[in-house]
Specification:
The protein is built from 24 helices and twelve strands.
């Protein structure tokens, strides 16, 4: 619905025009005298671009209406010939079936409107669905944008080209998610590769040397570990030592014998003189050599163990290469290796402490193999590093894509999972709505094309003539009818009540009336052209050109029907603006019968101001009751605002006197004039001279000559005329100074 019209910058033909009209309601009745700017206002409605700076303000919650304007321009454009309407000279025919189908398709409750509403509803639903999808996308996008800052510095080159656009980042993220559903690596592993691919100063790395292996079985003394090392069996003490199996105890004790002065270091008894000799014979050269081999074996194993410890301690210090080591795996393997070596050394130590014992050694072969495995894996990584370094250009993009997979499936695993859980259902719903929209759009297009085909069959002059004649009959107008022309194909003629075909006898009033009838019928049924909207704002400017009662009544009836349809929500017209200068016609179209609905009505007065643009004053109640009442309204305004311009005030005063005293009759104007003196008498005489001469005569300068009389003087003389004629009560009532009418006086 239109809320207001701001009229500015009228063209050269009407330089003073300019007005603001608003706020407008569904039904608007504007009253104004000729020359007040009504036609210019109607032209602004028809073509706002005609006036620079003019604008229409529509209600923001509804779509703009199509605008159809009836004014003198419409009459001139529609009636190009004296007795023809060129705009209806179209071929075609109508039938009950065709019209019924048109009615089914068109109108506010028609199939096309229903399908359009369905399409609008689907579009609204699609918008909501897209909003839901956008919300899910935005959640993932914000998380990705935030978590990209958690990516290790060594890998942040993966975001080159994406740091300036969240949408671009999200788009690539979704591409990676669609191509990769799982991940088998993490950023820690990729950082090693990044050192070769991303670092511009990277250089090849040397591989780790493997630790020295040791075959214990091949070392001298190894076989003695499992063999008891004892003295000679030929010595007299040998049987006892073997029986007691205390050779190791004897060996340790014999070193004290030389320090006891021939006494036993244990029992303190005197020892045999040859005891030392026998002991030396028992622990002979062979025994000594075997002990030496065991000591040598121990020294070799210890040296090997020390070299391994130095080697392992040196691994983390190898710059660059150490990044390829699996530190946790290395630590675990070393702990196991250190434990195995420690046990080996303890076993050798135990053998030396008791040479006669049997000690089985466990070689740390498994532990060495585990350490070697860790080192070989590191060397494999170093080899790959060096290879990537050689092929940096091609390896760079492969690494970046792998980084993206880790980012999507590891860092954003939760967020991407939620997204992938929600999006399929939303996209499916969106796709279903889009399919429904496509189907409905095709259906709407099909129905619209069908309607256009049907309209071609009902746009000939015959259905237009029938419609206009029905309008005439329903309005009670019988002075003439329209009929098909025999001279012009698909034309029409005007048939008088006596059967005469009008040719040169078509009056200006009839031309105006017929054109209004054509305009009125164009508001019914379907739009006349494919470009014309179904819902309309209609502007009607002075649709009558005479006071012929039949014409006035017929036009009033048709306008009141439009108003009734707007009030009840029927037909195509959604908003109406009527402009007129005829007070009686204004009264007819605004008359409220008991029981009539008249919600959304509004009234206005269009005034031409001296030296200024026109003004439009809006009222919730009708300020124009009759033409006589309108004249008194101007008198009241002049009385309340004596300093305001009062163009035509004297003529208004004369018209009131003529109207009232003609009704009253028997006016002795000479006696009334004699009651005045000076300029007041001249003013009074001029008023009654006009009454006697008639409203359309020209005043003789001998009867009255213009003087610089003030508004107050004219109004004072006008009031005294009523007082002298004993009609003061009527004056006071019409001026709004009393509320009830004195008995015997008549309101006009």
């Amino acid at each position: 619905m239109l809320e207001s019209l701001a009229l500015r910058g009228a063209p050269a033909f009407d330089p003073d025009v300019g007005a603001d009209i608003g706020p407008l309601t569904p039904v608007n009745f504007l009253f104004g005298p000729n020359g007040s700017g009504k036609t210019t206002i109607s032209r602004a409605f028809a073509d706002p671009g005609r006036f620079t700076g003019t604008s229409l303000s529509w209600n923001s919650s509804a779509k703009a209406l199509g605008i159809k304007v009836y004014n003198r321009d419409y009459v001139a454009a529609t009636l190009q010939q004296a007795a023809n309407l060129p705009s209806v000279f179209l071929l075609g025919k109508t039938s009950v079936e065709v019209q019924n189908e048109i009615d089914t398709l068109s109108g506010p409750a028609g199939s096309i409107a229903a399908t359009q509403k369905q399409l609008d509803d689907l579009s609204g639903t699609l918008t909501l669905k897209k909003s839901e999808i956008a919300a899910v996308r935005d959640t993932l996008k914000e998380s990705a944008w935030s978590k990209r800052l958690t990516v290790p510095t060594e890998l942040n080159k993966m975001f080159v080209g994406y740091n300036g656009s969240q949408e671009k980042l999200l788009a690539h993220l979704l591409e990676v998610a669609a191509a990769s559903s799982t991940v088998t690596e993490d950023f820690d592993a990729l950082k090693v590769e990044a050192a070769a691919v991303f670092a511009e100063d990277a250089s090849p790395l040397a591989e780790f040397p493997l630790g020295r292996s040791l075959c214990l079985e091949e070392l001298p003394g190894f076989d003695l570990m499992a063999t008891p090392v004892v003295g000679s069996a030929d010595v007299r003490l040998s049987p006892l030592i073997q029986q007691l199996q205390n050779a190791d105890w004897v060996e340790h004790g014999r070193h004290y014998l030389s320090q006891t002065n021939g006494h036993c270091p244990f029992c303190q008894q005197s020892t045999p003189p040859d005891l030392a000799e026998q002991l030396d014979s028992y622990f002979d050269t062979r025994y000594t050599q075997q002990i030496a081999q065991l000591n040598s074996f121990q020294a070799v194993v210890q040296e090997w163990a020390d070299s391994w410890h130095s080697y392992l301690n040196d691994l983390p210090t190898r710059l660059g290469a150490s990044d390829h080591l699996k530190v946790e795996d290395l630590q675990t393997a070393r702990l196991q290796f250190d434990a195995a070596v420690l046990q080996l050394l303890k076993s050798i130590e135990a053998k030396l402490a008791g040479p006669s014992s049997v000690v089985l050694l466990e070689t740390p072969a498994t532990e060495i193999e585990d350490l070697s495995t860790v080192l070989m894996e590191a060397n494999a990584s170093i080899k790959a590093f060096n290879l990537r370094l050689q092929n940096r250009a091609t390896e760079k993009w492969a690494l970046i894509e792998r980084c993206w997979v880790v980012f999507v499936r590891d860092v954003l695993a939760t967020e991407v999972g939620r997204f992938e859980g929600a999006i399929p259902a939303l996209e499916l719903g969106k796709s279903g709505i889009e399919d429904a929209i496509d189907t409905t759009a095709v259906e709407l297009k099909t129905k619209t094309l069908r309607l256009r085909e049907l309209q071609k069959q009902v746009t000939s002059s015959k259905p237009i003539i029938d419609t206009i004649n029905r309008l005439l009959d329903s309005a009670g107008f019988h002075s003439f009818r329209l009929k098909e022309s025999s001279a012009v194909p698909d034309g029409y003629s005007l048939e008088r009540e006596n059967g005469e075909i009008a040719s040169d006898t078509l009056s200006e009033g009839e031309r105006t009336f017929i054109t209004f009838l054509y305009f009125a019928q164009s508001l019914q049924g379907t739009p006349q052209t494919p470009d014309e909207p179904n819902d309309l704002l209609v502007v009607i400017d002075d649709p009558i050109s005479s006071l012929d009662s039949d014409v006035l009544y017929a036009v009033s009836t048709l306008i009141r029907r439009i108003v009734a349809d707007i009030t009840s929500g029927k037909g195509r017209v959604r908003q109406l603006v009527v402009l007129t200068h005829n007070a009686y016609f204004h009264k007819e179209i605004t008359y409220k019968r008991p029981g009539d609905k008249h919600g959304g009505w509004q009234y206005g007065i269009v005034r031409k101001r001296n030296g200024l643009s026109s003004e439009v004053i809006l009222f919730p109640e009708n300020p124009i009751q009759t033409a006589y009442g309108a004249l008194w309204e101007e008198v009241r305004r002049a009385s309340n605002e004596p300093s305001a311009p009062a163009i035509g005030l004297q003529n208004i005063l004369r018209r009131i006197l003529e109207t009232y005293f003609k009704v009253l009759g028997g006016v002795d104007d000479t006696a009334i004039v004699e009651e005045f003196e000076g300029d007041d008498r001249l003013i009074c005489r001029s008023l009654f001279s006009w009454v006697n001469a008639g409203s359309h005569s020209i005043f003789d300068d001998l009867d009255y000559s213009q003087t610089p009389s003030t508004v107050e003087t004219n109004l004072r003389v006008f009031q005294r005329v009523f007082e002298v004629h004993k009609q003061e009560g009527h004056y006071l009532m019409m001026m709004g100074q009393i509320r009830t009418q004195p008995v015997g006086e008549r309101q006009m």
